[in-house]
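FAQ

Q: What does a record look like?
A: Structure on top, sequence underneath. For example:
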């Protein structure tokens, strides 16, 4: 897809946390991942000269693999290929939501772990963000819908509006942009990405996301 650029000066920073990201993120490349066991979204964003560039975005189709271990192998190969091609400095992932279905959580956690391993194998730093934080960074509200987030990304970056599995790609783009926006925030860490109260709020507002 074509490269899309957006000046950060045009972005309303009133909802962003921490100091300006300009100096910190200058010249850096971030790969965003939206973990999934049927479709995994990905997006690569570069920040340079005060502008964000969406270099590529798409989905990894895993539904054709019936064997769960073949799915994991394919995730590792595809993410490794993306990392090798675009040489990102960091990987940002949407942290899996907590649900009542332990098996679903296990599958999602495995998919996320394999994507992390593909990045860490090439010395790419990994960061996680809970869904409400991603929505807050992009739309200014943790209650925003996927469609609202996609619409904002469309208006700011010029990317195509997605539907169905294509929303996994815009989800990946949103987590990459969230990382860029909040890089200097003390809560944007690798090991801690939210509180139990935030997860409880997210699940109460999104009952369809309970696995």
């Amino acid at each position: 897809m074509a490269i899309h650029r957006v000046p950060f000066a045009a972005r309303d920073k009133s909802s962003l946390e921490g100091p300006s990201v300009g100096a910190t993120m200058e010249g850096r490349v971030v790969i965003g991942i939206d973990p999934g066991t049927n479709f995994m979204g990905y997006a690569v964003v570069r920040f340079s000269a005060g502008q964000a560039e969406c270099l590529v975005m798409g989905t990894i189709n895993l539904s054709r693999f019936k064997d769960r271990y073949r799915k994991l192998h394919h995730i590792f190969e595809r993410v490794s290929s993306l990392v090798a091609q675009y040489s990102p400095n960091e990987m940002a992932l949407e942290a899996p939501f907590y649900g009542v279905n332990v098996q679903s959580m296990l599958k999602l956690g495995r998919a996320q772990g394999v994507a992390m391993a593909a990045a860490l194998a090439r010395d790419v730093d990994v960061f996680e963000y809970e869904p409400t934080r991603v929505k807050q960074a992009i739309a200014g509200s943790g209650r925003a819908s996927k469609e609202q987030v996609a619409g904002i990304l469309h208006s700011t970056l010029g990317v195509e509006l997605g539907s169905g599995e294509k929303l996994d790609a815009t989800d990946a783009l949103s987590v990459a942009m969230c990382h860029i926006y909040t890089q200097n925030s003390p809560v944007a860490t690798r090991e801690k990405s939210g509180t139990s109260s935030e997860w409880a709020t997210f699940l109460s507002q999104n009952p369809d996301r309970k696995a």
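Q: Is there anything notable about this one?
A: The first helix runs from residue 22 to 25.
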